[in-house]
Design a protein that fits this description.
Length: about 100
């Protein structure tokens, strides 16, 4: 479950990047956390990690069930997908 400090920070943020494990797949914990984040966050960008060597569409497929608009297959270890995630994030943030 998400900690109270983490939830408070997410509520104040313009956007949240939530990273899930693409190799483990969609879990009950992911589904529960998705409900909590959806009701408390302005924008959620779902980063599906550990997608190196996987077909991107297949890696993202089951996570579409969470209903988030922004999904990106990434590999934190190799850095792949991070530029696309950052471009999507920055394009959604209000300009100041």
């Amino acid at each position: 479950m998400i900690g109270l400090q983490s939830l408070a920070a997410a509520q104040e943020a313009e956007a949240v990047i939530w990273m899930v494990d693409g190799r483990e797949g969609l879990t009950v914990t992911d589904q529960n956390l998705a409900r909590t984040l959806r009701s408390n966050c302005k924008r959620i960008f779902l980063a599906v990690n550990k997608c190196e060597g996987l077909d991107e569409n297949l890696a993202l497929a089951e996570f579409h069930a969470l209903g988030f608009e922004h999904l990106q297959a990434i590999s934190a270890k190799r850095g792949s997908g991070i530029p696309g995630l950052m471009d999507a994030l920055l394009s959604e943030l209000p300009s100041k």
